[in-house]
Design brief:
Layout lengths: L9 E2 L5 E2 L59 E9 L6 E5 L8 E2 L1 E3 L2 E9 L3 E8 L2 E3 L6 E6 L2 E9 L10 E4 L5 E3 L2 E9 L11 E4 L2 E2 L7 E2 L4 E6 L7 E10 L5 E10 L11 E4 L30 H9 L10 E4 L9 E3 L8 E3 L19 H4 L14 H13 L3 E7 L5 E2 L9 E2 L1 H6 L50 H18 L3 E5 L6 H14 L7 E4 L6 H4 L10 E2 L2 H12 L5 H19 L6 E2 L9 H5 L19 H16 L3 E5 L26 H19 L2 H4 L1 E7 L3 E8 L2 E8 L5 E6 L8 E4 L5 E5 L2 E6 L3 E6 L1
Parallel strand pairs: 21-22, 21-32, 22-25, 25-28, 28-29, 29-30, 31-32
Antiparallel strand pairs: 1-2, 3-7, 4-5, 4-8, 6-7, 8-9, 8-11, 10-11, 12-14, 13-14, 14-18, 15-16, 15-19, 17-18, 19-20, 23-24, 26-27, 33-34, 34-35, 35-40, 36-39, 37-38, 37-40, 38-39
Helix pairs in contact: 1-3, 5-6, 8-9, 8-11, 11-12
Length: 803
């Protein structure tokens, strides 16, 4: 795919005015992705340890002869584009474009009820245009537009892009039949190359499987039918995901790709089956793959890199840590290269310089196929797009492969709202600017109006939840002056980020993205990203998108949740309900919890009934659940943080109640690492302490983890807890119970929020429950008599009854 780079400079005119250099073609370079060079100086080719070498095809013989990287012929610098405006009784109509800085009015001719003109425009560049009809500026109705900030308001221009003229049409790849034939121990499929203006150049064909090159003999190509055939009937492991990536070029040098992912597993996974575990990679576990150490001064030690890496996560996957909890989805920090600098905190963190260990200060955003040969990146010192503190690309491939072999899906964070750029960083550090910011730093089509303290700071000016219709709002505010805010009303910005997302998915065989700060971007980006990812996946395999919209306004949380956008959002309003009722010991917990649940469900199911929300009570952005349950001061992370370990049994009881609700309620439960046992912590960065395992846990923590593992396993074993309909059975101030039913599977969950033992007798006829049920946590039983079930629970406990 063609990478578009537009170098523009803005002058202060009523309409945005750009003088743009003509783009250059990206040369075709087949994988594997090189980890050599770049900011960390490491060298580790992404070959998955196969030792096969890159697969290249030599005509119909299928022999390997080494990878090549020919230069594609440069495309033309301009293309003829025809502009048409429906007539509305105009006397004269002229076309003006940003191509020549709005300097030339091009006369148009009326014919057959429309005004028309053909004129050259830059190849592959977004060109803005408007019409001057009888002296009035107008836009072309029904055509794509671009909104540009100007003088506190907006200018709306049409936008067009010419990408085909003068260049031979590229070929395409397609999965024959649209799917892969699988059995428990075999799979087969065919991929057909459909030539454009030229045939396939077999010397430029590379096929990889799960990051490792596939021998040419295993992917025979029939030149007469333009078909690759893959058939495997031995050596398979299940569960496992198999991701084939075809990257080819024709004899004109025009490249194309095809991603063929599929799973072989005993039971077909639905995303409603997911139980997600959030890993902040740097704070999880050192595993020996990191290629970079801590920053050191001026970075504050608490906010510096701590050494967690891809290898540490892989170790815990292979050791069965996640299997023991029933976790089947991992959400990882963004693997994309971030800044090496530290930045001064605000709020409670004033006076402390914090590094980018959280992966939200990206500088390699926009990296895609061919970027390794793009001077925009290499000229800014970036030849490796993966964060070296975590490892190299091969280490991430190994992590994902290990997870898939355990039946675990993998999501990574995706940062789309901003990039990092600081020309005058604190404490004498050297400037660092993301290539996208370097290329477009003066371009209001790419970045929202520059940061102005007191005007458009998302937090300081309380713009988090302001409507997009207002001047300065949640979509155009800046998080910080060193995080240039991308203008997601611009289709070129959206395309750049969506192409980057596709590259990440294909290169690392990912199963989904958790997209950061989606309510701070325009919904058009969500549409574009979903469309491009769906188009890149050749099989019916579903890819999960979940957005993050920090704040309590439900309508904003649901901003990008639609069938043509994201599957769901991280449910902040429900988070607030769980914290306020269960964790913090609300005296009316049962009733308040039920009211919050009913309100939340009515809102998001009203937006889209198919929404698969991410439900959570703790995250890297909030104070730790156990410290909230203990009543600690969580707002002073530097001088009065919670203790290294909590010791109050009641706090752990409240945490276990929250666990039980999270894992038996609807949609997708999300647990923040450490909350499975009760890791303490105040607000960021104290909430991000290094993980602890095994003997480092106290007896209270170990017991809490054991109970949590039981909950995870019972959820995995019962479809009612993953897909079942939920029915309220009892609610009062201190007691709450509901049943979930899926087919013949019925599960009843009950909570005693009070400080004394309590019994409740409730009707279960509406869930058709009969016989005796057993508590999967404590082992006690209860029997239905006359359609009634009596449940007796000790104080501050939950029970999960199954048949």
């Amino acid at each position: 795919m063609l990478r578009r780079v537009i170098l523009c400079f803005v002058t202060a005119l009523p309409l945005a005015v750009f003088a743009c250099s003509a783009p250059q073609a990206s040369p075709y370079t087949p994988p594997p992705l090189s980890d050599g060079g770049g900011v960390d100086g490491s060298s580790n080719t992404l070959d998955g340890g196969s030792g096969e070498g890159s697969t290249t095809h030599d005509g119909a013989t299928g022999s390997s002869d080494g990878a090549v990287s020919p230069e594609a012929a440069p495309p033309p610098t301009t293309c003829p584009e025809t502009f048409t405006l429906p007539d509305n009784g105009y006397t004269t109509v002229q076309l003006e474009t940003d191509y020549d800085s709005w300097a030339t009015a091009i006369p148009m001719t009326k014919a057959s009820g429309a005004w028309q003109v053909t004129t050259p425009v830059p190849y592959g560049t977004d060109v803005e245009y408007k019409f001057v009809a009888d002296g009035n500026w107008i836009i072309n109705p029904g055509q794509p537009t671009l909104e540009l900030p100007s003088n506190g308001g907006t200018n709306t221009n049409n936008i067009v892009q010419a990408i085909t003229c003068g260049r031979p049409a590229a070929g395409t790849l397609q999965l024959v039949g649209g799917n892969v034939t699988t059995t428990a121990n075999s799979y087969s499929f065919q991929v057909q190359y459909v030539p454009g203006a030229a045939d396939l150049d077999t010397a430029k064909t590379v096929v990889t499987l799960n990051g490792s090159p596939v021998p040419a003999s295993a992917v025979p190509y029939d030149a007469s039918t333009h078909t690759f055939t893959i058939s495997v009937s031995s050596g398979l492991t299940a569960p496992n995901k198999y991701g084939y990536l075809f990257q080819v070029a024709d004899t004109n040098g025009s490249p194309t790709t095809l991603f063929v992912p599929f799973w072989i597993e005993a039971t077909t996974f639905q995303w409603s089956d997911s139980f997600m575990y959030e890993v902040m990679v740097d704070r999880f576990l050192p595993g020996g793959t990191s290629k970079a150490g801590p920053n050191g001064p001026p970075t504050d030690p608490v906010g510096d890199w701590k050494g967690g890496d891809f290898g540490g996560v892989t170790q815990k996957i292979t050791a069965g840590y996640f299997d023991a909890m029933g976790v089947n989805t991992l959400w990882l920090s963004s693997p994309v290269l971030g800044t090496k600098l530290c930045e001064m905190g605000d709020g409670a963190n004033v006076g402390h310089c914090l590094s980018g260990y959280h992966s939200y200060f990206p500088i390699a955003s926009g990296w895609t196929y061919g970027s390794e040969n793009d001077p925009l990146f290499s000229g800014n010192g970036i030849t490796n797009p993966i964060e070296p503190h975590f490892g190299v690309a091969a280490d991430l491939v190994a992590l994902v492969n290990a997870a898939h072999q355990h039946g675990i899906r993998v999501l990574t964070d995706l940062v789309v709202n901003h990039v990092f750029a600081d020309t005058s960083p604190p404490s004498g550090q050297l400037a660092q600017i993301a290539p996208l910011s370097f290329a477009h730093q003066a371009d209001l089509a790419w970045f929202n109006i520059p940061y102005q303290s007191g005007t458009n700071d998302c937090g300081n000016e309380n713009l988090w939840d302001t409507p997009e219709s207002t001047t300065w709002n949640r979509a155009d505010c800046w998080f910080d002056p060193y995080l240039p805010d991308l203008n997601s009303t611009n289709p070129s910005v959206d395309d750049e980020l969506a192409d980057h997302a596709v590259w990440l998915m294909e290169q690392f065989n990912l199963d989904g993205f958790r997209v950061d700060a989606v309510k701070q971007v325009n919904n058009a980006l969500c549409v574009d990203m979903r469309a491009k990812v769906n188009a890149a996946i050749s099989t019916p395999l579903p890819f999960y998108f979940v957005g993050e919209a920090l704040g309590g306004v439900v309508a904003n949380v649901m901003d990008c949740v639609q069938p043509n956008m994201f599957n769901g959002s991280m449910d902040d309003p429900l988070h607030n309900t769980i914290v306020g009722t269960i964790l913090q010991g609300d005296s009316n917990a049962g009733t308040d919890l039920d009211n919050g649940v009913v309100s939340d469900e009515a809102t998001w199911t009203g937006v889209t009934p198919s929404a698969l929300m991410g439900h959570f009570f703790g995250s890297h952005d909030t104070a730790r659940a156990i410290s909230l349950a203990n009543g600690d001061d969580v707002n002073d992370p530097w001088t009065n943080p919670p203790p290294a370990q909590e010791t109050n049994p009641a706090a752990f009881s409240h945490l276990s109640l929250a666990h039980a609700f999270l894992l038996t309620y609807d949609s997708i439960p999300v647990i923040w690492m450490g909350d499975e046992f009760g890791q303490p912590g105040a607000i960021d960065p104290d909430s991000r302490r290094m993980m602890r395992f095994g003997s480092a846990l106290s007896s209270l923590e170990a017991g809490t983890l054991t109970n949590f593992q039981k909950l995870g396993k019972v959820r995995a074993a019962h479809p009612a807890l993953r897909e079942g309909t939920r029915t309220r059975l009892w609610v009062d101030a201190s007691f709450y119970a509901y049943g979930r039913v899926e087919g013949t599977d019925t599960v009843v969950t009950a909570f005693n929020f009070g400080t004394a033992q309590a019994s409740r007798t409730m009707s279960v006829t509406n869930i058709a429950l009969t016989g005796t049920v057993t508590d999967a946590l404590a082992g006690g039983t209860a029997t239905v008599a006359g359609g009634m079930l009596t449940i007796t629970l000790p104080p501050l406990t939950a029970a999960v009854f199954t048949q």
